[in-house]
Amino acid sequence: MATAPDLQSLKVDYKRNPMLPWPFQIRRVKHETEDTFTIELQPSGDLEEFTFQPGQFNMVYVYGVGEIPISISGDPANPRTLVHTTRAVGSVTKAMDKMRRGDILGIRGPYGTPWPIDHANGQDVVFVAGGIGLAPLRPVLYEVVAQRERYGKVVLLYGTRTPSDVLFRQELENWRARFDLEIYVTVDRAMSGWRGNVGVVTNLISRAPFDPRNTMAFVCGPEVMMRFTTMELHKRGVDNEHIFVSMERNMKCAIGLCGHCQFGSVFVCKDGPVFRYSQIKDMLVKWEI
Amino acid sequence: MKNFIFERAELDNLVETLKRRGFKVIGPTVRDSAIIYDELTDANDLPIGWTDEQTNGTYRLKRRDDAAVFAWTVGPQSWKKFLFPPIQKIFATHRSTKGLDFPNSKKQAPQESPPIKYAFFGVRSCELNAIAIQDKVFLGGPFIDPLYQRKRTGVFIVAINCNQAGGTCFCASMNTGPKATTGFDLALTEILSDKHHYFVVEAGTELGEDILKNVKCTKATEENLATIKNITEQTVTQMSRSLDTANLKNILYQSSEHPRWERTASLCLTCTNCTMVCPTCFCATVEDVTDLAGKQADRIRKWDSCFTLDFSYIHGGSVRTSTKARYRQWMTHKLASWVDQFGTFGCVGCGRCITWCPVGIDITEEARAIRENQP
Ligand SMILES: Cc1cc2nc3c(=O)[nH]c(=O)nc-3n(C[C@H](O)[C@H](O)[C@H](O)COP(=O)(O)OP(=O)(O)OC[C@H]3O[C@@H](n4cnc5c(N)ncnc54)[C@H](O)[C@@H]3O)c2cc1C
Ligand code: SF4
Ligand code: FES
Predict the structure, then answer these.
(1) B259-267 and B323-332 helices cross at what angle (nearest 10)?
(2) Domain coverage including residue A78
(3) Cβ separation of B256 and A8 shorter than 8 Å?
(4) Which ligand is closest to the CA of A89, given by its number?
(5) Cβ distance B340 to B278 under 8 Å?
(6) Which of A114, A222, B22, B66 has the greatest CB tally within 10 Å of its CB?
(7) Is A62 in contact with A92 (CB distance < 8 Å)?
(8) How many whole angstroms separate alpha carbon A138 and alpha carbon B334?
């Protein structure tokens, strides 16, 4: 028989009601590409700061429209500004896209497991990003760049659809200019003038400069891309224990109560979204789990 | 153990006492050809003289030739609808000339009326277990559901030990019945012979014992307790279905490509009935609705089901498009992943999903077919 938690010991605390969003005000909107935009937010209620760990996400609520999970894409060293980078694909994201400086959004979070970057001390670090998957990786890239001396080689492999879909262009340029970061960008379809790589991001893995026996890999992108990326990394000799992926599932609550984000035995919202690959490998290779 | 007996007539008094103590007494009653749970005016609202016949895809009420009060088993509803209502407002946001007003902003302190104090009257052992399972889901952390907590705290529970098994019951297999062992304030057993109609009552809490002070009771004898034991044993032998739980979790995890799923999927209508009647299913979705003027936006939580296509939708398509994947998700969750998530099965053997499935799919049969045909 299941035993119930001690009911009397649970006090109702409305300040911490995990279902209520906090009001945040938009301070800046930046259009990254045709369909992707970055917003900077500041708390407009009781909160003063918003601290988070790289890899975590928020539930973003648009008045009367809906609430969706969006990763935090800003710098963890700057807790006064909350940053989200979003691709407009459907009702909520398109409503967000219409919002301007001064508008209010509801925010709940931060939720989920972070990228375990502390475990990468003294090792090479490889980031593999597909499309909007670069957004959840940007905070950890900031952190690694800020403490560059802690790590061996630092490599970013980033694939996107076309050259005009490349996110965070200025930042990528700045990072590319540094001698201690290896940045490789590839596109599915090139246009004239593109001098970078063409093809899927997984093609870059076999040639990327890192020592597979001493590497931590962080992967975020569409599920198929992650399946192939993990296979390629494994082929190069990176241990499954050293690969971390960020999973995506439908989410209605982000606090383990709605059931939507189940992926086999785990809840992506509270047990993830960042998982050690070895933990979910068996499920990732099955269809429709 | 604190066991007493009281006469059938005193049952009315027990309901009365709970009402006098400020409880809203919810219990079984006959409505629209089924036994459902609703507020009781008095003990006359109980399904006196009724019983039910249940099997795969069938539920029928029948008159008995005696005045037994609890000689039936669970119907389409469960207590879940009171603790975790099918439709529930989570919060409202207001828009005025000054902007948006969130429930969490300084201006608007949450104003809440005191929660309703429920007394659940006639909770069967499988249902007690279902409540305990939902307690784990909603209150076990790391996040606690404040809406559930508010309703759950202070619920007074009068359990009823089953004296007959329903046509689709298999609680004995799930170790969740037919006799209530914990989680109640009072537990009743109804005993009806030619001449004598009475109840044996066990007090599970001090409050339960206190309530009994208003009911004319005498101490239960060894003989009374032996009678209960007999009744429970008989009920177990009546159970026609069983589900072997040994190593079940691993068997199901290893059987994600078992051919049985395809066969079941060819029958399943993805109607969601099984999930709607299940007393442990906790999945919910949310809806955001605004009033016509756009001045107020409500966020509403509604029961949801893993049998719908929308349930697993992410941009680009649903994760579980096939009926096979959805049935597999449901059953594997109930009998395997639930164990990893909450340390218990998500099934209490109440048989509702078997009775209310329009095509009569039987979870015990499905589990057996998969177990017996391992590659
Ligand atoms: C942990 C996590 C982090 C994410 N981070 C980002 C990010 O940083 N940037 C970004 O652009 N996108 C991110 N997404 C995806 C984003 O949540 C979806 O694009 C968004 O929910 C689509 O909502 P919509 O109403 O615009 O689309 P619609 O197609 O209208 O969606 C309808 C509903 O389906 C659900 N849904 C649809 N797509 C998804 C999806 N991909 N994931 C989860 N639920 C979905 C939502 O509940 C949504 O309300 C993330 C998803 C997850 C799970
Ligand atoms: S198993 Fe039966 S009740 Fe459940 S969704 Fe399928 S047809 Fe409906
Ligand atoms: S999003 Fe609701 S349980 Fe994970």
Answers:
(1) 110
(2) 7-111
(3) no
(4) 1
(5) no
(6) A114
(7) yes
(8) 38
**What atom in ligand 3 is closest to the CA of residue A258?**
2
pTM reported for the whole predicted model:
0.94
Q: Looking at residue A206, what DSSP letter applies?
A: G
Q: What is the pLDDT of residues A59-85, one digit of tens each?
A: 999 999 999 999 999 999 999 999 999
Same domain? A180 vs A275: yes
CATH of the domain at A59: 2.40.30.10
- How far apart, in Å, are the Cα atoms of A23 and each of A28, A73, B136, B264, B301? 16, 19, 31, 47, 20
Please write the tens of the pLDDT for every residue from A165-196: 999 999 999 999 999 999 999 999 988 888 88
Nearest Cβ partner for A4 among B93, B136, B313? B136
Q: Any alpha helices (H) in A105-197, and if so which ranges?
A: 134-146, 169-177
Which residue of A lies nearest to B291 if distances are taken between CA atoms?
Answer: A64
- Residue B47's φ and ψ, nearest 5 degrees, are -75, 60
- Name residues whose C-beta falls within 8 Å of residue A243's C-beta, 6 or more positions apart in sequence: A216, A217, A219, A230, A233, A234, A276, A277, A278
Q: How many Å apart are CA B276 and CA B235, to the nearest integer?
A: 27
ipTM: 0.94
Cβ neighbours, 10 Å, residue B209: 15
Contact A57, B137 (CB under 8 A): no
